[in-house]
UniProtKB/TrEMBL annotation:
UniProt protein name: Pantoate--beta-alanine ligase
Domain NAD-dependent epimerase/dehydratase, first and last residues per copy: 33-244
Catalysed transformations (reactions): (R)-pantoate + beta-alanine + ATP = (R)-pantothenate + AMP + diphosphate + H(+)
Gene3D superfamilies for the chain: HUPs (3.40.50.620), NAD(P)-binding Rossmann-like Domain (3.40.50.720), Pantoate-beta-alanine ligase, C-terminal domain (3.30.1300.10)
Keyword Oxidoreductase: no
Length: 658
């Protein structure tokens, strides 16, 4: 039996105009789509999508026990046929269901085995082969719905049999299309609804291993439109389509999104993976219920569930994905009773970001281009968070960008190695530049714009490293630039204040984010913003450290393995002084410096440059730690690399940053 194509016509769907084609056969001109496993969550959406976009089509849903499922409502007359029986472990019933079909959609899948008949292999591998053979024998096009993470090499039976099922389908029916969705959400989903119900029962929401596994949830209507497109076009024949939403979220952020959209207040607490395995060991032996969890599901939770970029996606099918924030509030509010709190709408949660973007940031190289964008954001009343960097990014920069992402509508990161911060003998030419890696890191965070100006753009009059030969306008903050780091690098903060002033004037950000590791820089910038009446809030993030305490820095990559082992000595020395202060055994500048210096002096390969005990606000050197506390800071040189760090004495980070 050979395929013929119906005439091409234009249909309108939510994703715009697209070409709709259905395969028919010469002996069966009626377009009939059979959806096997179609009476569950996704099937009715596929039925409605097909019927909406093809006025001459009929749809029939098939499942193991159609009498157990009410007929899906439809406003398309008699074109939604009565459900029929089809059991993938009974090949004859599947052949009967596929007879006369122009297209078959396989939605069959299980999360829990029901032995001895309905095992993962019987349903997701051999069952997929049975459906593929029946579709081929009927001359029908086949869309096989699998899952992101399908892998024939997986140790988890669910994922392994999904992968084997894909292989079986393409072996039997080479023109079949394989659709791999990420987590699917919608009014009847078993993910957000389940966790919202659990959140009402439990005193907290547990997340395993910190909740850092990534998901890319896709709205069920978008998935249905994608499957409808796979039926309607031959460009996906024999191909895999990975279907994910517009944003990538960490699991913890999905839980926070669920709580916010449902209006439920619960803490999110990280639980070790081993607890999940123990819980699964017991719960998988009980009848399926709200608390059901298996050890295999715990293993799957340790693997990211996002679009790989190696296959076709929704964009190739002309489907524009829907953000979870635009939908969840419509049905999660149903999980709430008697709380009197109205769940948030998308508008009220617009400024809060839960996701990690998969879209690369826009690269902007000129002030004119950026200001055009800023004008648009201003008209839309969007807040802007700005993170200035010199590139060679690390987790400290990422932490600042994440904070900006959570608190601002738009996040801009600049990458500019500022010549004005370097003396003629310093490492301007050797400063690390890792643009490709930087863009990848900022993409994962969800940064919107990377501002990447050249030196001419930032210094129209030009710039030389020798201060006495420089021309143009420069900014200097008196009283806070000559001590501490300024005692070693006398013109450094002149360069910092100048470039930050330029950036704040260009960016006009709502907030600008700096790290506490550069405590003196934070103090200089805050003073400058206050004195020049710049309407930007300066936000200071805590120092991000390596496991051994070394503060993260772009220059750490200069260190050899031997030098890297020495580098934490400064933090150890400062921490020893901090402990002595907290214990009341050291209060004076001399006592604190003596403690720290003793540790540094015995460390071979570390050369002390300075130690400072300064007022946290004026930066004046203190002989005694006063009521306002102090910044205990210093610098050492390890090989050719300078290591700087600081700790606070008698004052919390929260108080100091305010």
């Amino acid at each position: 039996m050979r395929y013929i194509k119906t005439p091409v016509r234009l249909c309108r769907s939510q994703s715009g105009l697209w070409l709709a084609r259905f395969y028919t056969t010469e002996s069966n001109p009626t377009k009939k789509v059979v959806v096997i496993g179609g009476t569950g969550f996704i099937g009715p959406y596929i039925a409605r999508s097909v019927l909406q976009d093809s006025p001459s089509a009929t749809v029939q849903l098939a499942c193991r026990s159609p009498r157990d499922h009410p007929q899906v409502s439809s406003s398309h007359g008699g074109r939604l046929l009565p459900s029929i029986a089809a059991d993938v472990t009974d090949s004859q019933s599947v052949r009967e269901a596929c007879r006369g079909a122009s297209a078959v959609v396989n939605l069959v899948g299980i999360m829990h085995e029901r032995r001895p008949r309905y095992t993962f292999d019987a349903v997701q591998n051999e069952g997929a082969r049975v459906i593929a053979q029946a579709a081929k024998d009927s001359g029908a096009k086949l869309v096989h719905v699998s899952a992101i993470g399908a892998d024939v090499e997986s140790e988890v039976p669910y994922a392994r049999t999904k992968g084997l099922g894909e292989q079986a389908v393409l072996d039997v029916h080479p023109d079949a299309s394989v659709v791999r969705p990420s987590l699917v959400f919608g009014k009847e989903d078993d993910f957000f609804n389940r966790f919202a119900k659990l959140a009402r029962i439990l005193p907290f929401v547990p997340v395993f291993g910190g909740g850092h596994t990534k998901f890319q949830p896709v709205y069920v209507e978008d998935l249905a439109r994608a499957i409808t497109q796979c039926i309607a076009t031959d460009k996906v024949n024999g191909k895999i389509v990975e279907v994910g939403g517009p944003h990538v979220y960490e699991y913890r952020d999905l839980m926070q999104l669920m709580l916010d959209q449902a209006g439920i207040r619960r803490p999110i607490i990280s639980v070790p993976w081993i607890v999940g395995y123990i819980q699964g060991f017991f719960l998988e032996r009980l009848p399926e219920n709200l608390f059901t969890l298996t050890r295999d599901q715990v293993k799957l939770l340790q693997r990211d569930n996002v679009v790989s970029g190696s296959h076709m996606t929704l964009a190739d099918l002309g489907v524009s994905p829907t953000p979870a924030e635009d939908v969840l509030h419509r049905y999660l509010r149903r999980t709430r009773s008697g709380t009197g709190v109205r769940p948030p709408t998308p508008a009220s949660t617009h400024s809060r970001s839960y996701f990690t973007s998969t879209r690369k940031p826009r690269i902007v190289e000129t002030i004119a281009e950026y200001r055009a964008l800023r004008h648009q954001w201003q008209r839309q009343d969007l807040s802007v968070g700005f993170v200035p960097t010199m590139g060679a990014l690390h987790d400290g920069h990422v932490s600042l960008a994440r904070t900006a992402r959570k608190t601002c509508d738009i996040v801009v990161v600049s990458i500019f190695v500022n010549p004005a911060q370097f003396a003629p003998h310093e490492d301007l030419g050797k400063y690390p530049r890792t643009m490709e890696q930087d863009v990848a890191m900022l993409t994962e965070v969800g940064v919107d714009v990377i501002f990447l100006p050249n030196v001419k753009e930032m210094y129209p009059a030009g710039i030389v490293l020798d201060v006495k030969d420089q021309q143009g306008t420069f900014v200097e903050v008196k009283g806070k630039s000559h001590q501490m780091e300024g005692s070693i690098r006398p013109h450094f903060f002149r360069g910092v204040a100048t470039v930050v002033t330029k950036f704040l004037n260009i960016m006009q950000p709502t907030k600008a984010f700096f790290g506490q590791k550069d405590a003196q820089q934070c103090a200089v910038v805050r003073t400058m913003v206050r004195d020049l009446f710049i309407p930007t809030e300066i936000v200071v993030g805590e120092t991000v450290r390596e496991p051994d305490g070394l503060a993260m820095s772009s220059r750490n990559r200069y260190l050899s393995p031997e030098e890297r082992a020495i580098a934490p000595v400064l933090y150890k020395a400062l921490s020893a002084g901090q402990r002595a202060f907290n214990e009341g055994t050291a209060k004076s500048r001399d006592e604190l410096i003596q403690i720290a210096k003793a540790i540094i002096d015995v460390q071979h390969g570390a050369e002390l440059e300075y130690l400072s005990v300064a007022n946290p606000f004026s930066l004046a050197e203190e002989e005694q730690v006063g009521s306002e506390g102090a910044i205990f800071s210093g610098a050492v040189r390890v090989g050719k690399t300078r290591i700087i760090d600081n700790v606070l004495l008698g004052i919390s980070t929260e108080t100091w940053v305010k």
